[in-house]
Amino acid sequence: MTVQERTTGPLTTEAGAPVADNQQSQTAGPGGPSLIQDQLLIEKLAHFNRERIPERIVHARGAGAYGTFTVTADVTRYTRAKFLSEVGKQTETFLRFSTVAGNLGAPDAVRDPRGFALKFYTEDGNYDLVGNNTPVFFIRDAIKFPDFIHTQKRDPYTGSQEADNVWDFWGLSPESTHQVTWLLGDRGIPASYRHMNGYGSHTFQWNNEDGEVFWVKYHFKTDQGIQNLTNEEAEILAGKDPDSHQRDLREAIERGDHPSWTVQVQIMPAADAPNYRFNPFDLTKVWPHDDYPPIEIGKLELNRNPENIFAEVEQSIFSPHHFVPGIGPSPDKMLQGRLFSYGDAHRYRVGINADHLPVNRPHATNANTHGRDGVMYDGRHGGRKNYEPNSFDADTKQTDRPLWEPVAVSGVTGDHVTPSHAEDDDFVQAGNLYRLMPEDAKQRLIDTAAGFIAKVSRDDIAQRAIENFRKADEDYGKRLEAAVQALRG
Fold first, then answer.
1. Cystine design at 79: which of 174, 240, 280, 326 (Cβ 3.0–4.6 Å)?
2. What Gene3D superfamilies does the annotation carry (predicted)?
3. Does the N-terminal peptide bond of residue 389 adopt cis geometry, omega within 30 degrees of 0?
4. Is 59 a catalytic residue?
């Protein structure tokens, strides 16, 4: 039975037996205690106690929809991925939007990055592109990720998010200056999920039939136009309608106003990377469009809502290690950590067989593994052998062709600082972003940042944060310092 089908007939137990009475539980006489023999009562209460699975540690609050990706340009010179093999080719997709720091019950209209997790149901299996609505991130190495998220979550003593923790970490991690400028600027609170861009953020590998390697970055440009909320608008909306973004997405699709994004990529020949002016695998930086102009490759449209939020949105799983032939990872240290952490989180949260669920199951091909058993195992393999090599299933064998091309490495193992490029710097791009803003946008950024920094209890934490912005742009830091001093008195 597919998720869209409806079961007809009488109400039944989980085992399919008809229910005689769903209004009264069985008791020992009309006024007596309940009986343990009432298996419907036990089944309903036990199921209710287990209806919630652990929420995601990050990106817990989300909404999703199904759609299609359509190829609009020939990219076969760059990648052998089959779903990108011809103009006009369509692939089914599922896209989950989310906030990052809030829990499952948090409001949508908050100042926070937005997750942009896209699943392509390709003929070669699922390809997951797990990005955000910003092209950069706060840190460049996954070993710092748990520490960063701890600063965004509730303090272990106060039980609240603390400005001290947030700004202490950001001030001591100057590579965050670029992303913080994005977050506290006008695009920090999207008006809806439909009115924001999405980005793969990381650098990925494309490889073609001849084995040539290219490094790529993905951009999803909203066709609805960028729209954002001010702090005041967001505060009102979050209080009046905590589900604002989820509701907006659902209702737009219901009325046939299908949101869409123009999909672009930046493409860098692999030979350019070693001598590029800054590290092209650094997640805290963008590739300037003058260096590598975005090329349109497709159109993404969302056109179908989930039938059940829990089954299809909460239990959906995405992992950046879900690649297909022609696409692979890069040496990006944040991406390398996520290749493990996302799959591991879902194995814990949803279960070892989460890929059996309809929303996660490949569409055009069956997963043909030797993994068996575990929670939710659906018996899909029957009695087939579960080891390799074996002489019973002649077709179940390796292809002898990796999904992506190998990357040369050298040196000794250890905790290495990434080699510097000529223009590696934590502040240049943050300053460039500030200088691109019109005056009114600069003032809103200063007001937002100052209001947040003013909550810090220690002067040294506040001053260190301000100095990072001053290194990005002297005017940025000077105005921010004055605004903080005015608020702190």
1. 326
2. Catalase core domain
3. yes
4. yes
